[in-house]
Amino acid sequence: MALTREEGIALARAHAAAERNGDLAATLATLEADPLYELFPIGRTFRGMAATRVYYDHFFTTFRPIGRGSELHSEWVSDRGVAQEYTLRI
Fold it and tell me: Which residue, among 19, 89, 90, 15, has the nearest Cα to 57 in the 3D structure?
């Protein structure tokens, strides 16, 4: 199902809010059935809901507790999706 630009922006922002709130179920609910992650600049990729769940389990239990805040710098929107650039403070 294709989203309008406005729906895509709202979904991306809901995803970021779910991450910020530490809500695994809400975070996963914002994703398509077969998500693809490309983590730049480290050159890592993973695909699929099982791998995504492992990633977010680690994110919420290991990384997020040392986080002290974040700042959204930029947001790009195209017909294919939304990208957001953050600075994370740990």
Answer: 19
29 Cβ contact list (under 8 Å, min separation 6): 18
CB 15 within 8 A of CB 31: yes
Residue showing tokens 């990208």: 83
d(C-alpha 3, C-alpha 22), whole Å? 25
Dig out the tokens for 90 from the structure.
């740990």
Q: What would the pLDDT profile of 38-72 be if each residue is shown by its tens digit?
A: 888 899 999 999 999 999 999 999 999 999 989 99
> Nearest 5°: CA angle at 63, between 62 and 64?
105
What was the pLDDT predicted at 79? 81
**Considering the entire predicted model, what is its pTM?**
0.85
